[in-house]
Amino acid sequence: MSRPETDLILRPYASRDLAAVYDICLRTADAGADAAHLYTDPWVLGHRYAGPYVALEPDFAFVLESSERVVGYVLGVPDSARFAAESQANWFSLLRPLYPLPTETDKSLDAQARRLIHAGCPAPDAPWLEQYPAHLHIDLLPQAQGRGLGRALMEALWAALRAADVPGVHLGVGAGNPRAHAFYTHLGFTELEKVEGRFWTLGYDLR
Length: 207
Hints:
- This protein has about 210 residues and is an alpha+beta fold.
- It has one domain (about 10-205): Gcn5-related N-acetyltransferase (GNAT) (Aminopeptidase).
- It has seven helices and seven strands.
- It has a seven-stranded mixed sheet with strand order 1-2-3-4-5-7-6, sandwiched between helices.
- The longest helix is centred in the middle third of the chain and has 16 residues, at about 80-95.
- The chain is globular, with a radius of gyration of 16 Å.
- Keywords: Acyltransferase, Transferase.
- Its EC number is 2.3.1.-.
């Protein structure tokens, strides 16, 4: 694929990248900052936010690789409703026996992540879904930020989605991450929905 910088390559995801993708998911989970010190289980977040994407839709996953390691990724699905059903049947159902539902009194972040595994990926239901059926997650380590590489990852995913005749893509941004919100709006995303104090849903037209 392309070389957005001389020391980094942008390429399709490969199965050997799984551990690196999980690690990046964890190290960007605190509103973009490193959350490794916040979790006892370093895999639990990746199981929710990365694993089902690369397992079920690997053709819509791309990574940035340096000479030493993978430093960023974008993960997408062309049809969020279909993905919700497939991830429930073929991913989360297999994980739940390994991650029993914690007690209500357990307020730890690990417990919250385990509850997300039991919740799965809810089937979306919104008036804008027909126009923006795809969704994505993108994360970059600090050394890959601020260099135009996020846009390069997005453009790789957009090309794959357009080739699949997908009209638009959406994503969620936590209210505690205004920097990410600014990044997406700079790329051309528009606001589809806002829950005050919690999150934004943004959409990008691919046509």
